[in-house]
Amino acid sequence: MTSLDLNAGEPASAQSYRGLVGRRVVVLLGLALALVLSVAVDVSLGPARYALGDVLQTIFAPGSADLQMRVVVWEIRMPMALLAVTVGASLSLAGAQMQTILANPLASPFTLGLSAAASFGAALAMVLGVAILPGAVALMVPVNAFAMAMAASLLIFLLSTLRGVTTETIILLGIALVFSFNAALALLQYFASEQALSAVVFWTMGSLTKATWGKVTVTAAILAVCTPLFARRAWALTAIRLGEVRAVAMGVPVRRLRLETLVLVSILAAVPVSFVGTIGFIGIVGPHVARLLLGEDQRFFLPGAMLAGAVILSATSVLSKAILPGAVLPIGIITALVGVPFFAALILTKGRKSW
Fold first, then answer.
1. Where are the alpha helices (DSSP H) in the chain?
2. Rounded to two decimals, what is the model's pTM?
């Protein structure tokens, strides 16, 4: 019997499922290819522009490149390009799982107040010279940002454990935190010196210009730890999207899953934000792009959200260098310009169809 005969004898549902899986794998491969191309272009751009072929040769055969180009590519541009990948993947994955457990398309590290809390923590270091954690003077700004983001996450986590608290309550609490931390940040800016004010404003715009291999390693390590933990819960996270009642009937411990996921996404979001500043909307746009292309099945949605977020932030990094030749615009400005229209469209369409 030929392979064609075997396929003909297969149930239509099995053939349809195999076709669906094949299409989703092709989409993931396409996103991965787009990411590789975007990173290569990102490394080639800067105050001194290099040909893409020369960049690829420097990356894969560094011994054949001249010293200056090797230093620029490997010590300056590669950390920036790869940090865009790890930060984009982390924020998008965090946003995807926040949207999953809270059943809300607007949930993300940005809208739940984690980014605002990190900005306030960084401003405490820049304006007042206050170190939240003793002994962290040398890394005061990122440590303060991380500590405040985790404190905001802990507050949301503790309140979510109270009886009667719904997912809508958590979203409203996050919005309240955004306004509260933004008000506290504005107060610090009012009393800040001109130099400190400039530093705070630049930090809140979000930037990859201070990328180092150490930051790339830390964000990649956090991503490598959290991703398998989410992958192990893929079936349960997919089930929870059918509704809490159905998920409980299928044996999913919804409350425990929601709390565990909230802890993981808090760490996943707090670390990148503490390094690069406020980068909004990646946690909203990335998951929705993945959901549009791949659906809700976490086996495909999880890697898809990571790749989509990484591609978006990497492409944004390219735009930040290409808009004004010789200058690098703060990446948070570009993501806001892209994200705000998407955010508005999402709000306007949410009332017209169920999510």
1. 3-8, 12-44, 52-60, 67-71, 78-102, 114-123, 140-160, 167-191, 194-205, 213-232, 234-240, 244-249, 254-276, 282-294, 298-322, 331-350
2. 0.87
